[in-house]
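Pipeline run #58 for the internal structure catalog. This entry was flagged by the ingest filter as a single-chain record with no existing model, so it goes straight to prediction. Upstream metadata was stripped on purpose; only the residue string is passed forward. Reviewer on rotation: M.T. Logging verbosity set to normal.
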Amino acid sequence: MKKVILLVIASLGLFSTNAQSTFDFIDEFGSLKKNWAIVSQDNCHGIINKQGELVVPVSFDYIEEFGSYSRNLAIISYNDKVGLINRKGKIVLAPVFDYI
């Protein structure tokens, strides 16, 4: 039974073994954006896709979910300053502000 479950999970691409061994924590895929997951390494956060590729570098103190601030933007935090990323993972407002 365990082999069948692992085979199903692997065939669906729900995780990447490379990604799992690289990061301290991988959040649930789809909780931030479909096919993306927040990852943590040494208390820094970033975003990967289901292939385990970085969409947003693991360098932020915090990444908020899309929709909390704006439908298409998420708040990022770095050194107690905040900025914004878009749904493509690009920084649209550098984290240099005290608040947004």
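catalog note: The helical segments are 2-12, 17-22.
catalog note: Residues 1-18 have pLDDT under 50 and may be disordered.
status: ready for reviewer M.T.
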